[in-house]
Amino acid sequence: MRLVIQRVSSASVSVDGKLHSAVDRGMLVLVGVENGDTEADMQWLAAKTVSLRIFDDENGVMNRSVADVGGDILAVSQFTLTASTRKGNRPSYIRAAGHELAVPLYENFCMELSRLLGREVKRGIFGADMKVSLVNDGPVTIVIDSRLKE
């Protein structure tokens, strides 16, 4: 699984011109699921996400987690994070997991984030044509890949 985490002042997802989910201060987490990803990958990434110290403390040092600052999380599935660009100019998505793996891992990831955070995590709609808006705070953007955890 691959995540792109952005510290945000606000973020939202709209589908068909209608607001679906929104958060204020917190994180926008884009989630890509690849073939071979497991529940263990999902759990590791969820724990890492909630504990990631990317929010400023009283001294202006990134030393607090989203949980520490009472921030929210908006998690959005994004299969394009699995793109391979090694050959040619057209990205290949052959590593992207099919719905039978990707949907349960995305849903379980969101539920695990909610459990660890202690409140509801907002979501996009898996497979929908979503319009994502955000105000990146910092900017702070972190990429985490469960296959690179060691």
For the structure shown, list the relevant keywords:
150 residues, alpha/beta, D-tyrosyl-trna(Tyr) Deacylase, Chain: A, six-stranded mixed beta sheet, two-stranded antiparallel ribbon, 2 helices, globular
* CATH third-level topology: D-tyrosyl-trna(Tyr) Deacylase, Chain: A
Helix content: 10-25%
* Count of β-strands: 8
Low-confidence segments: none
- Give the end-to-end Cα distance, rounded to a whole number of Å: 14 Å
- SS element count, helices: 2
Outline, from the CA principal axes? globular
Number of domains: 1
Mean pLDDT across every amino acid position: 96
Briefly, what CATH class? Alpha Beta
Along the chain, the helix and strand elements come as EEEHEEEHEE
What's the CATH H-level superfamily name? D-tyrosyl-tRNA(Tyr) deacylase
In the CATH hierarchy, the architecture is 3-Layer(bba) Sandwich
Strand content: 35-45%
Largest sheet: 6 strands, mixed
Computed structural class: alpha/beta
Please give the radius of gyration in angstroms. 15 Å
Catalytic activity: a D-aminoacyl-tRNA + H2O = a tRNA + a D-alpha-amino acid + H(+); glycyl-tRNA(Ala) + H2O = tRNA(Ala) + glycine + H(+)
Organism: Heminiphilus faecis
Protein name: D-aminoacyl-tRNA deacylase
Pfam family, one: Tyr_Deacylase
